[in-house]
Amino acid sequence: MKKWTLIHRGKPGVTDETEKFKLSPEISQILENRNINSEEEIKLFTNPSLDYLRDPFLMKDMGKAAERIKKAIELNERVWIYGDYDVDGVSSTSVLLTYFRSINFNVKYYIPNRLEEGYGINKEAIEYISSEGCDLIISVDCGITSVDEVEYANELDIEMIITDHHECQSEIPNAYAVVNPKQDDCNYPFDMLCGCGIAFKLVQALTPPEVFKTTVYDYIEIATLATICDIVPLVDENRIIVKNGLKAMKNGHNLGLSELINVCGVDKEKIGSSHIGFTIGPRINAAGRLGFSDLGVELFTATDKDTAHEIALALDEKNNDRQMIEMKIHHEAETIIKNDPSYEDDKVIVLAHEGWQHGVIGIVASKLTEKYYKPTILMCIEDGEATGSARSIKGFSIFDALTECADILTKFGGHEQAAGLSISADKVAELRRRINESADINLTEEDMIEEIKVEYELDEKSANFDLIEELRKLEPFGMSNPTPKFILRDCILRDMRFMGQNRQHIKLEIEKDNVFECVGFNAAHLIDGLKNGDRIDVLFQLDENTFMGKRKLQFLVKDLRLAYPKSATTNIDAVKLMNELIPNNENSLYNIESLEEYKLGHIDIEGERVENIFDFIEDNTLVIANSINGFFRAKSDLTLLEEEVEIYFKEICENDKKHSKIHLIFSPNIDKIDVKRYNNIILYDYLYTRDDYGKLYSKVEDECKIIKNYNEIDKIYIKSIMENIVPTRNEFVNIYRYVTKNRGIKFRMDDTMNIFKMIPLKLFAIIKIFKELGLFDVAIDERDFVNVEMLPKPDSKLDLNRSKILINLNQIREKAKEIYNV
């Protein structure tokens, strides 16, 4: 179960600033949700012009690096670019190669083989470069942790310029220049560029400003690809790069990238960040994962269309190979997890296996992290060494966790959400133990529940093509500027079906006032247990589908949950609530104490559903629900809050250790609640009796607000409870005979109607009363099975009138007649 959290509670609205830009309330609110408030911020966000690119010389050592490169050009020195094998490294290498070729200066490049050399700079590579002849190495997207390797290069009389964006460790390499905005003493205003972003800034520093205004388009498409694929925040300079880069891709300035887009079948006119991240980027990465990183560089620097097309086809083929290997590793990893119960208790999944391909395990680690919502480390074992990739979840820095284990690691590097590492194979078990000890300290149970941020609850009248067009102003979407997600609640599920060869996708039709089509990719698990006619809450992204020239509004489902079942008698959660309506013993009986009439006369029990209930939910709020419908409504509202909500039945535990400030109580004994502690009390249902209203109003503080969040329709649900809470004598006899005949019974709670043809509420009343009278022994296990066993027949004749539970239920039904005409 994922946690949904509303960023904005209530209707979207405009501000004075957004009104100047003629933005709709829906778009204005999304900007407000992203803390884009000032006129200048809105202008930069909605129109991220290249003119707003920052001065590259504000970055530490940028001037020093640029001067050293210019010197190398003047002296015709031998220059090498040392890149990395992923999209970011390949793109960074390509950007610098493109620059040097534009000024007719010959340089060479080196990208380590992922399968044989692993991540980062290594001494063997430096030795090879030295043997080929080298005066200067410029690293891109790597090198910030290569202290020993830089020293080795220095010993070989090779100067190094490090350009990187990864997290720095305690010691910075002794290079000629180190360009990385994450250095503590670097005052560059934006430190979230990817590796290619740093290379892009280096080219900007090397190019006269007036020239760069034109030549920027030689690099910006590739920088855009890297920025999206490296999952850096799409704000500030990253947003400027990507927004303008996506526009440039429509014209296909970079020949190789244009051919790859064509091979992938992506419409250039509609190309967006999702196409880059999920279609184009993986094909570049696939080559690196299989040891062919040079293909990406050759593609991006190609000058002949036929050559570019051949390379694009080769990359597409490598991607198919990668997918097959990935499927095999994924299956094997899942098998290990399922066959070892100890992984259920681990907060971090750590797996190592011989035969896994190092270049692919990062993708599998990402998929396992997404599925289990746990940080994941996957490693392949070869010649006694385990090498792998790590992926993490929000709130847990995998880089910091690995730093704590640095003494047993051979090598590691990365950032908060992703890292690479190597370790002796015999220390893998120790790594698993230690990193889970760290997670036990730093990750709470709440952290292990994935949270989905929702912009606001969308009015269905606003779900239209106009809003889709406006949302495009907020593109590109990505980290720190996610695709807006909305919710629509209490929708009737009219139809649902599976799609895809493996039935892994779903297509739904939902209805509120209007009918909407919903599609969920890899979301088949979301409809488990749902039935047509159920009411559901849907979390989605707004999209459109065009087929044969016809546009259709479409919701891309990201999550959904039951709002209210079509049949409460066959839904396990609803049936559990029916069980809670019946007292278990004399300690949980309804209080029937009557109040003097004068205490009740002034109380108006009628209410009206509140348009924005979140206006009334604050610290120390009590929420009361008396019906299954009311409970589901309350839970649907309260689960959208960031604040913790504690749920109770009948009574509130005053000594609750969590000290939750918001309490939801179902079918309470009003007289047993310390209502003086609450600032607000919200009723989602009518109370059972007028006396309950009297008790509530007479006990609260004067400052306390009582909000009656119900209407006349909700009276039906309370009336139904009171009509069915007392079984008939024949119903008692029939159940007794059934249990006697079968010498006991065992049934699942939500199977009551099928077996007994009786509303569960009545059945629970009968078996609890028989238990009280010593006829039955009743127990409910953790799987929601009710086990009823016959006890020895009592000496005296059965007298139902001795049951305090039955007497109590009759009394409350009589009291309810006053207002519900039961």
Provide structural commentary.
The protein has 28 helices and 26 strands. The strands form six sheets. Strands 3-2-4-5-6 form a five-stranded parallel β-sheet, sandwiched between helices. Strand 14 (486-499) and strand 15 (505-511) form a beta hairpin. Helix 8 packs antiparallel against helix 10 (220-229). It is elongated and about 110 Å long. The model has no long low-confidence stretch (mean pLDDT 91).
Q: What features would you highlight for this structure?
A:
alpha/beta, 822 residues, elongated, five-stranded parallel beta sheet, five-stranded mixed beta sheet
Summarize the structure.
With 822 residues, this protein is α/β, with parallel strands linked by helices.
* Mean pLDDT over the full residue set: 91
- Uncertain segments are none
Order the strands across the largest sheet as they lie in space: 3-2-4-5-6
- Structural class, by secondary structure, is alpha/beta
Q: Count the strands? A: 26
What composes the largest sheet?
5 strands, parallel
How many DSSP helices?
28
